[in-house]
Amino acid sequence: MMRRAAGALVTRDLRLLWTRRGDAFQPALFALLMVMLFALALGGDAKALAPVASAVLWLAVLLAGLLSLDSMFRGDAEDGSLEQWMLAPVPLWWLVLVRTLVHWASTALPVILAVPMLGELLHLPRAQLPVLMVSLMLGTPILSLLGAVVAALTIGMRRAGVLVALLALPLYVPVLVFGAGAVAASAQGLDAVGALLLLGAGLVLALVLAPLAAAAALRIAHN
Amino acid sequence: MNSPVLDRLIRWFHQLGSPPTFDRFAARWAPWAYVLGLLTMAVGLYGALFQVPADYQQGDSFRILYIHVPSAWMSMAIFALMAFYAAIGLVWRIKLCEILAMSCAPIGAAFTLITLATGSIWGKPMWGTWWEWDPRLTTELILLFLYLGVMGLYAAIDDRRNAARAAGFLAIVGVALLPVIRWSVVWWNSLHQGQTIRMFGESSMDASMLAPLAWMVVGTHLWFVGSLLTRARADNLVRESGKDWVARLVEARR
User: Would you say A86 and A219 are in contact if contact means Cβ atoms under 8 Å apart?
Assistant: First the structure.
């Protein structure tokens, strides 16, 4: 039952995504614009860009994810699908988990795939790229899962706006600290595995707890 | 189980949940809490400024800790209390607990702000910088953002009860931060000094320095109670503004 419900939800989300396939590029486009602004603000000099490149890329990915956060449950709340979710014979947290992962794959994954190219624009040292990619792959799902809780809490508002940032960014801080910290450690020749393992542990914890919290938040905020 | 004292206590507790009873209770006790809090803090401040000897390393500038430390403790204790009220409000749907939880947020935010400001003022002569991205400072700043998030969420949703429940849920989620702040000086190598005051065992602070701190801690708690009762009373009156008893209260004032 749970597998069939997940399959149906994934198929529906992918179909909806396909009808608006241009939207999938928007977060990556935003990240590209941010990278451009950072590079120009720092003077475009390779010597100035290379040391901060990994931090700027982490920020670009994080903020691109923040922009698409509001759309996670918004459409379903407006067209009434959310009521169906709550009435469905499968637990709400399961649907929330599936939706969060689909949302991650359609918003965060394209940006991560663009990171090697964006890294070239920022003169990111090649040796840092593998650690950066691993930290992003482990960290961005945590961001999406934490973001799901915030998106669920703000579903009762017509336009959440800045409030989403105020609620989500403090929760994002540890992920950013360990994610960007792993790359910074490896750049200094230290072992990045510790921070990456902590990120992995955080991901496991978020996978278990965040869908439950987001489901509870949906029930509270959506009446 | 059926002792008359206990029965009366339970009945009093249940009645306190009714808005008019709480209004009378808060109107009666809030001024007492304020006055007692002010007096206690005055005693504590007098001791801190005039009686305690200057520190052998830091001179007189260490005296700011008598404001910094109690407000830092309050900033965390109020968050825990807010989450506690919010949890009761969510589980048993007690309206008064929702009101109390939401009234905690601005007070806690103010204590957090005082903590950050006094720490910053102390840090300039001692560390040579207003701000350092140190684990304890950063986590305390995040705590401020969480308070602001709770307040923002409560203000943004139109329906008061839904708003209180959503914001209360955020407060419960945010409790995860409290142990990180508490043990941040132990877990990470930190510029902020480690734990010097211990509830159990020997404190690494001299006993003569502790007495004013105890006064200040009690004083901030009393002040918090007064502030909480006043704020909860105001929110309670706004929510009940359509009811008869509020109209009668306004009539009696005229």
Answer: yes
